[in-house]
């Protein structure tokens, strides 16, 4: 890499070489071990782009089929596969990973950090995405792609009505890909909260980071319901447990709830980062700070909250009680308020500034036109009587493309053009760029504006053909022509990007006159981003100090140098941005790739129904993940105790709290969302499912249930006491105590297993027993993990990786124990006590 | 912009007709929604033009008056409160005020007089419609065609026989999902006698596109006559004994013909000769159509659940077809 450093002095050069030696990426085969966020962010985006093009080809196949009535371009079966995969690829393999990739690339640079807090997790997430995406897409080449529509409604997607492997590809592939979304969600949250530049209090954070924080938290809470739904549906397909089958007491509507509990927030997960791009670009091109920073933050948070209360508006025609419909209808309209606030904040910023019309701004204007239109039809759709008419017609297809293409693709392209010079050091071509924009914009509107009419004329969505004479022919033909025009536009944009990499004019430093930290870096940025970590006292560091880049490169700020060989960055307080500790990061590693490969084996063997192989591969994957976690804290390959370590602030593994503990906390938040979804499923089926059978008496032994819970409480109490002692510097007998705690955990598990064995559940005959089984397996799995990690901690205590001077790791594990105790007792109340109190019956 | 819409409107309205068109309502519920649509379209077009116009104007401005920071704040606050809170707030209130009453019509609430409207049951199957008319004088069952009295509300009780389908007659209003294990209710009314298109609206598998329902609203007396005619077994035309026997041997397990067989897997064929289309809208009913359908149905509607009839020769299929065509009340 030949970065243009922001400063060419010998001091800057020396510092660059020193940091590059520690932070630089390995090359050749070892490029597979890279954990650097810039590299991985670009890999995410490049892979996302490939899937975007594949999804686009599928869209063109759809438009070719629908161009003429009674067209037999594709068979009905293939058409169903193509439409299902178009939606699935665009949502799961393009939109989310693309935006994650952008965030992974940009966030550390914007908040003044050298990398994300869990670099190996970034790599792991990327491999899961890549392998999951390949597995999922390969189904299309094998002509056994999922064909039940991208929201996979049961019973159509069930074993009875989709006996092939299609649904399994979807459920397993998507769940695999989702690991990557969750990894990114967790580490972006923690990175934004804990590694901002010194002095960058929350209220000084760039708006883009606020948007990504909201997106990340929404991923953390929003994806687990879908993962649960996928697990349950795959269990139903593989073993016959009737979670969604009416005959066994399940309910197909439960799938819809779980799907849309994820699916609606997903729309905002996609929209918020894109809006973040708009909020970043508008002030830069208006040449003034955004007006109403606080309003925007409030709008972001409100959108995040409200978006979890809207899912039922995808289900207005399911036969939901009227009161609930009114509630969800009003809530769906209310989300227009924070969106409108942002639109008018941008408008006021432009109005009060001196806006420049540049290529990125052109895409922002395109976004505005399309998105406002999509937002307005969205408000229409929130009105129940109108929704009943146009639901599941091409009107909705048009609406969702206005919102998603307008709300995501257009800002994304604006952002790509905007940050391109940072990545490549070159400027794109104005002329070709504009041509690409106009083709895309006009083609899009030709396709989808017209499609509203097609829907109003009564054409349902997802039909593979239609009869002549219904008045739908001209509209469909125009939509198809428009679709191909849009494809030509996208091709032009790609051509522009490709040509620019070769022939583009060299870009000056900070070509747009931006205010955020990423533009202070080398172009392209060096592997370590910042040679020294600057203090940030305002929202516009580069407008305040245009020479900041030089200062940073010359090492005039914090943590200049890496003679100690550690990858270091500053850990700051979540709210104030005050310096708390020095975080040391892990380096390039094979473990993420190995673990992800093993999970791919799990995924494929589940697909092929080779369950023993799946179990074996899963065990290996767990071992690999634990082995990966072994190189941590005081381990010789991480940050062993030594003479060259800083005292004030200390390394994070020498403290009571650090990024890993936050990561565990956020991961448990996701876990909690999964658990809550399971409880929702339990109570939903119990109260609403048409064929639910509550047994006269609970099959679970109350005595064992309570005893196992008490055992767990004793174990945690002991652990808490040891942690307090450790905090006070007392580590004698720590290993023995940890072994003891793990043994108590083992007893807890043993009791649960005896109870499960005694209960003689019939999970394939009754949804009641199936949900009990899944709930108990859930606590067994968590209890097992907590005990296992505690055994490893005991071993680490023996080896001296955990001690009074390294008290950090047991505190991380303790979070899991607390979570287990909480979720266990909630489960006891939900499945053990409440049925006894309320009684059985239908 | 005053003249243009006025000129365009009739043109638009001509383009709005069609047997599935929401914008060509034929009943009170659909009419309310059509009006809602035109109202929302007009109001939202103004909002759209206003917002986009203001953005474009911001780029076109040549003068940039110097403003103090507090002036700027005041101006920005006015934009945000006016456009971000007042505009959507008022819009939402107006929408709910017009929209909530419109929704009431579709609900199966008690009628003012206290009597309950006629009930018709519709069951969705992959990929055909089963329609039942429960009646104290004996239930009438047909398939892929729905007759209803015009000028009075009718309650539809719908459910799914296998996967989820959706019942929707766009020109009358709707729609409602047909879920296995549940019965959903919707009330529709046709102003006048007429024929309306309907099509399954929830993706239900490969032949979702070929699942149409022929809906005919009749004057109440005509409807009663239509129903009465179907309460007794269809007249037995002379000279089709061989076809009848072949039917009993090959088709009766799945198909019901009143007085002859009781199969329930496939569509009831008791009045098939009187239907407008075959295969849930795949082809028009005309002489010889049934025989052609029997011979080529897997080509005409690939994947449909009726097995191919390779074991029967063309002659036998033609005989069965000719006999089925005589089945009309």
Structural class of chain A: mainly alpha
Helix % of chain A is 55-70%
Radius of gyration of chain A: 27 Å
Categorize the overall geometry of chain B: elongated
Describe the model:
Chain A has 842 residues and is mostly helical. Chain A is built from 24 helices and four strands. In chain A, the strands form two sheets. Chain A has a two-stranded antiparallel ribbon with strand order 1-2. In chain A, β3 (567-572) and β4 (579-585) form a beta hairpin. In chain A, α2 (37-66) runs antiparallel to α3, α21 (702-727) runs antiparallel to α22 and α21 packs antiparallel against α24 (808-838). The longest helix of chain A is centred in the first third of the chain and has 36 residues, at 76-111. Chain A is globular. Chain A starts with 9 loop residues before the first helix and ends with a helix. In chain B, 38% of the residues lie in helices and 20% in strands. By secondary structure, chain B is α+β, with helices and mostly antiparallel strands. Chain B starts with a helix and ends with a helix. A five-stranded mixed sheet of chain B has the order 3-2-1-5-8, with no helix packed on it. Chain B has a three-stranded mixed sheet with strand order 4-10-9. In chain B, α2 (28-60) packs antiparallel against α3, α5 (241-250) packs across α7 and α6 (289-300) crosses α7. The longest helix of chain B has 36 residues, at 69-104. Chain B is elongated. Chain B has seven helices and 14 strands. Chain B has helices spanning 3-14, 28-60, 69-104, 220-229, 241-250, 289-300, 314-325, and strands spanning 118-125, 128-133, 140-143, 145-149, 154-160, 165-169, 173-178, 184-188, 194-199, 212-218, 256-257, 261-262, 277-278, 283-284. At the A-B interface, α3, α9, α10, α11 and α12 of A face α2, α3 and β7 of B.
Task: Describe this structure in a few short sentences.
Chain A has 842 residues and is an all-alpha fold.
Any descriptors?
heterodimer; A: 842 residues; mainly alpha; two-stranded antiparallel sheet; 24 helices; 4 strands; 2% strand; globular; B: 329 residues; alpha+beta; 5-stranded mixed sheet; 3-stranded mixed sheet; 7 helices; 14 strands; 38% helix; elongated; disordered N terminus
